[in-house]
Structures are given as structure tokens and as C-alpha cells.
Amino acid sequence: MSSVRYELRGATALITLDYPPVNGLGAALRSGIVQALEQALADGSVQAIVLAGSERAFSGGADVKEFGTSLATQEPRLPAVIAALENAAKPVVAAIGGVCMGGGLELALGAHYRVARADAQLALPEVKLGLMPGAGGTQRLPRAIGVARALEMIVSGATMKAKAFEGTALLDAVVEGDPVPAALELAQQVVAQGLPRKRIRDLVIDDAGAPAALQAMRESVAKGSKFLPAPGKCIDAVELCLTTPFDEGLARERETFLALMSTPEARALRHIFGAERAASKVPGIPEGTALRTIARVGVIGAGTMGAGIAMNFLSAGIPVVLLEMKQDALDRGVATIRRNYEATVKKGKLKAEQLEKNMALLAPTLSYESFKDVDLAIEAVFENIDVKRQVFGTLDTVCKPGAILASNTSYLDVDAIAGFTQRPQDVLGLHFFSPANVMRLLEVVRGAKTAPDVLATCMALARKIGKMAIVSGVCDGFIGNRMLARYNAAVAGLIAAGASPQQLDGALQAFGMAMGPCRVGDLAGLDIGWATRKRRAEEAGVPFVPIIADKLCEAGRFGQKTGAGWYRYEAGSREPLPDPVTQQIIDAYRAERGIVPRAVGDAEIVERCMFALANEGARILEEGIAARASDIDLVYLNGYGFPRHRGGPMFNATLVGLPEVVKALQRFAAEPGAEAFWQPAPLLLKLAAEGKGFG
Ligand code: NAD
């Protein structure tokens, strides 16, 4: 019973869950609870029972360490533990403080009475892992708080403060401070007054608004979570409360929960959960590395990226000096920042006074004078190595020793940039994604000489400004854009072969991508890729051979900003409209190369695009540019609109099966002229031969 403490408090047995950090309901804790309960029931001097957790957590739910092991299914399972509480012959009072989530809340719902600390955090977050509550949550919570509120909690997985449930059957008392004394008192009162052992399962739902709430939630889920089965199953399960006897509802809930467990979607979401935990562990950074203090940030360039980058720090309460070359560019940058904040205020997501507080932290300037005391300088000027050379040379002379110098470059060599200074150990890439104040991804680019504490400081800072930071080594395009180049090349090949931009976007959006590649190209500007491809050809000393996207650019079609790219756009609209001019450019391109268009299937589109990504990901992995495949997945999930239910390009390849991926790549490579592009990466071949996946 080591996970549980058992004490007598007069005629009450106090059972305290004692399995740090959050009383995860692992096998030992589950059996500990049942044994303690049996002891209390067997002891004639005990009249009531209080079940409590720690100050930090009543229970955080399932024990993540047991995921996928036999311990997770070892008896007694959670439903049996809850049934033991619910059917106990002596009253059971749960004392809830801290976190009370998932199985933890389901456990509490099995008690006869509940007392909670006002700020205790209650949630049924299973849906976030592609699951639904599987130990009575969907059957008991609606009986306790009503169908509409329960649906909201179960389908969103949101965390609620206990105080919000005062006066409902969920909580008999809400207290400030430690809930245990109040629970002990309530237990004595129940005994003294002969109050009943209240079981939530016996409550009858009398809720005229329930059908409408169910319908509204179904509509919202159909719109927002169409690729995930769990939210819909949650709604079905809650509906059983209205139509089905409790025990049958419980059995059906469990059945669906177990079925969801092995869906690819749930596996993908579990993968992401683990990936996010792993990403902060960076090889070569000793634990406990002392961090540098970042109290003031300087941003150079107030264009598209600089303004957004500055906002991250302002919003986190960190003062920012923003530098431009000319007053009008500076004014434009400051106006952009204010306009973005104002839009957030309009949406009700920011208070007007907070906007002013953020703006007051911004110091626009035309002079490097104010860079003397910044702790971190982030450069976001034109993507041109000579401009970067000049900026970093200046930063090196004006910034204090120990200041971190970062570049937001998308493609340029961070080691070369570090070489423009006398302090390469203090230089790294901080590659934000556009819009930089919104996108969660931050690639932290580690140069050959970047000091471990510089890297560790930036990883910690990323957390502070709410970014998902992924460490990348130095290469052309880092992790994300290097893979994107292959993806776009696959897209170009498919269009040349016979697909239309609409079909391509449709197939990849049906796969789950937030936006198809042609729409993304039009949004971001096709000229960026055009410039990159021209630069690469020049660097490689080979003639530049335009692809179809480049032909569009040659015709002045850069995307939305010029009113036309792959699609055409009416003035003031972002709605992509098919354009016969695009078709003419595609036709001319095919004719020039003697390509006879063929029918391309949607499945082929998805295969080529996804496997091009995974194949390049494998190279990135074997070169050590990324530390782990799951980091690559997070880059795509957080920066490129990759669907969460697919887990990322590397996880997706693993689910498909690496031997299948290799077979497809070899098939593509056998086509004339395609060998170099589709050649499977050595690591991919090796893992496939060993019967392994990428993780
Ligand atoms: P931008 O043209 O919108 O802004 C660049 C700004 O830098 C301009 O306002 C310009 O006046 C200013 N500037 C140029 N030289 C300067 C100098 N010497 N001193 C001070 N200011 C100077 O460009 P952007 O899109 O914001 O890109 C900036 C950097 O961010 C580039 O390296 C780019 O590759 C990278 N980046 C861009 C994106 C994107 O989607 N736009 C995404 C990630 C990274």
C-alpha cells in the first residue's frame, strides 16, 4: 500500500493518495486505494471514509508512465476502483485540491460526497489524446452538472476551476485552502445526521435543454474536428445518459473508449504528447546549465517578421528596442504592431489597457545606440548575406559582452553569419514563422560554435513567449523549409504530370493539411521560392531551370499580393478562383517539355507529397540536423499546417509502414529522370529493412 497513506481520524478513515508528482492512477495506486478501502470497511470503529490527494493534485488521471505497458490494464482497473467506492457500505467523501483530471475526476465522481478547494482544476481532457473518458465520466458528469455543461467539458477537454461548480451536484462544498478538514467535518456530519450515501449514478437527468445542446455540439464538432473520431463519440456517449440505463451506458462508454485507444488518430495524438515532452531535451546541454538573463530585446528590421517578432516579447512583458533604417519604415512597423493588438482587443482577447502597456514597452529607434544594453538582438532584415554581414558586424561592436545575437534568416548559413562577429559562441538562428506573433513554431538553429547556455537560454525564452521550440542544425532551409522544398518539388512534378492546382489542394486538404500547397504558395508569395531556386542554381554553378511556379512568377504572378498566382483573386478577396491563364502556362510548360498529361489520382498526390517529406526528413535525421524524428513532426505540426491526427510526416510514414514507403519511392525513382529526386534515404532503407519505424 506504499502509494497510499491510511490514518484514523476519530471514526473516519483518511485515505491519502501518495504517488508523486500528480497521483497518476497507476496499478500500484489503484490497488492501494482498494486495499485501504477494504481495511476501512472491515474496521468496525470506522464510520466514514475521506479520500484525499496532495496539495498539488487529487489525481492527474492515468499514469502516463504506464501507457502501452501491461500495468495499464492490470486489475483492479479504474472502473472497478470507482465501483468499490460508489458501492461502499460506509459514506465516502472526496477531498479535492489541485489537479483533478481525467480518471482522477472520474474517481471523485464515484464518491458519495465531494469537497473541493475553490481553485482546484477539474477536467476530463481525454479528448485531447483522441480518447474519451472511459471510467464513467460521460455517464456521471452530465448527471452531476447537466448535459450542456458536461458536453462542453468533455468535448473540449477544457480545465475548469472548482468554484465554477458551486451549487451543483458535482461539489457539496467549495472551500478556500485545504479541503481535507472540511471533508472530515462533512464525513462526521453525514454519520451524525444519518445522511444517505448519494450515488451520482442514481441521479435522474431532468434537462429540457439537453437535445438542443447535443445538436449544437454536433454541428460545432462537424465543423471543427472533422478528422477526429473522439469528439463525436464523446457526444454519443453523453447522449446515452438520456436514453439508456446507467450500467448499459457505462458498458458502452468503456467499449468505445477501448476502441478509440487503438485508432490511428489517438496514436498520433499520443505521439504528439510524447514528442512535445521530448523536444525540450537538447543533446549536449547539461541539465542545470545556468541561463543568461534576457530582460531587454532588440529587433532589427520592422518589416513583416520584425514587427511580429517584437510582439512576442512585448506580450510577455519584455521591453523591445525596434530598429529600422528609415523613419517611414519604422512608423509602418510600429503601426502594424498597434493594429495587430487592436484587432485582438476587438476580438475581446486583450484588454485595451494591456494594449497600451505592451506598446509602452516598445522603443522604436533609428540608432544602434539603444542596442548597448539589450540582452538579445534578433535580426529580421532582408534575406541577403551582405545585409546580414553589415548588421552583425555592427551588432558585434555595439552590443555588450554576453548579449545573444540571433538571425531570423530562413535559408542563409548561420555559421557564416556567426563568422561576421568576434563572438560566434553567442550567435544562433531564431527562425520564427509568419505571422510571427501567431505561429507557435520556433526553429532554434544551433551553429557549429553556439554555446550550450545560449541555446538553453533561447529554449527557455521560447517557452516564456509561448513558442514550441525545436532545435535544428545548420543546413539550407533548416528542418522545415528544407523539407518544404522537396514537398514543393513533388507538387511541381504532379502538376507537370497532369494534376491541376485545384485537384492538388483538394487531395491534400482531404488528407488533412490546413491548406493545399498551391494556396499556401499564393498566400506566402511564389517569388520567395523562385528567388531561392535561382540562388541555389547560382551557388551550385548550374543553369537555372524554371519549374511551373517559376513560370508563373516570370508572368508577374506572385500570388495574392499581385492578384494572381496559381489562382486568381478578386480585389480585396482571398478566395482562390481557378484561372485559365494558369492553365495556359501549365499547358505551355508541358508542351515545351513534351509532357503528355495523364490522369493523376488523389492517392498518388498524397503519397508523393508525404513520402517526399518523410524521405527528406530521414536525411535530416541521419545528418543530425534534427535530434529525433518527433522533432521533425513538431516542426510540421506547428509551422506548416500538418494535421495533428496524422501525427506529423515521420509518424505518418511509420504508420503507413516504412517498407511500403520505400517501395513507393523506388517505384517513383524508376521513372525517367526521377532517380536522383526519389532515391530513398539510406536511413529509411535501413529502418525499413530492420522492420522499424522512425521513433
Ligand atoms: P521585410 O522585407 O518585410 O522586412 C525587412 C525589413 O528590414 C524592412 O522593413 C527593411 O527596411 C529592414 N531593413 C533592411 N535592411 C536593414 C538594415 N540594415 N537595418 C535595419 N533595417 C533594415 O522582410 P521579412 O519578410 O520580414 O523578412 C526578414 C527576414 O526574416 C528575412 O531574413 C527572411 O528570410 C526571414 N523570414 C521571413 C519569413 C516570411 O514569411 N516573410 C519567415 C521566416 C523568416
Name the bound molecules.
Answer: nicotinamide-adenine-dinucleotide
Q: Residue ranges: pLDDT <50 for 5 or more in a row? A: none
User: What's the helical proportion of residues?
Assistant: 40-55%
| Arithmetic mean of pLDDT | 96
> Strand pairing plus helix content: what structural class?
alpha/beta
Beta content comes to 5-15%
Oligomer: single chain
Task: Describe the protein in words.
The radius of gyration is 29 Å and the shape is globular. With 695 residues, the protein is an alpha/beta fold. The two termini are 36 Å apart. The protein contains 28 helices and 18 strands. It has an eight-stranded mixed β-sheet, sandwiched between helices. It has a six-stranded mixed β-sheet with strand order 1-2-3-5-7-10, sandwiched between helices. A four-stranded mixed β-sheet has the order 4-6-8-9. It folds into three domains: 4-261, 2-enoyl-CoA Hydratase, Chain A, domain 1 (Alpha-Beta Complex), CATH 3.90.226.10; 297-472, Rossmann fold, CATH 3.40.50; 480-689, N-(1-d-carboxylethyl)-l-norvaline Dehydrogenase, domain 2 (Orthogonal Bundle), CATH 1.10.1040.50. 49% of the residues lie in helices and 11% in strands. The mean pLDDT is 96. Nicotinamide-adenine-dinucleotide binds next to helix 11 and helix 14.
